[in-house]
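re the bet — no i am not wrong, look at it urself. input seq straight from the record:
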Amino acid sequence: MKNKKEAIPIKKFIPIGITLGIVLVIAAGFAFFEYILLKLLGFQYDSIHALIFFFVIYLFLELPISLIANAVPKALKSLNMIHSSRGWLAFVLQTASTFGLIAAIDHFMETISISWQGAFLFALCAGLINFIARKDEPEPLAAGSREFREIERKFDSKR
């Protein structure tokens, strides 16, 4: 008896390809906007390959760092340690993480350079955009609140 491999229909990959294409177009749009801003702030690179490599590294590292920087204020708000998850702490964390990332990439990549002042101004712009974009985001529930206890009871009853 011969083992025949089943052919995988190409139709299964079409939605994945379309989604991946949309994500790449959006990422390219953000990269272009960030490139213009960085270029105005003194960003220099040796070749187009170095530029593309910089943005690939930046986009892949910025996402998890930004998720952590946005999660910390929400966690502190849930524990009633701060009054708002959308305040200055969120702005400072986002700005500091962006500055740290740009400075680290600049340090380790010899083919690109940006002054610390340019990196800081870029980080301030990114932090301000994040601050404005998240101003209408709902606050997380505080631990011990009535709404939190109701949700907790719903999960306990499902077990």
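see?? The chain is about 70% helix and 5% strand. told u. also The chain has a mean pLDDT of 86. so pay up
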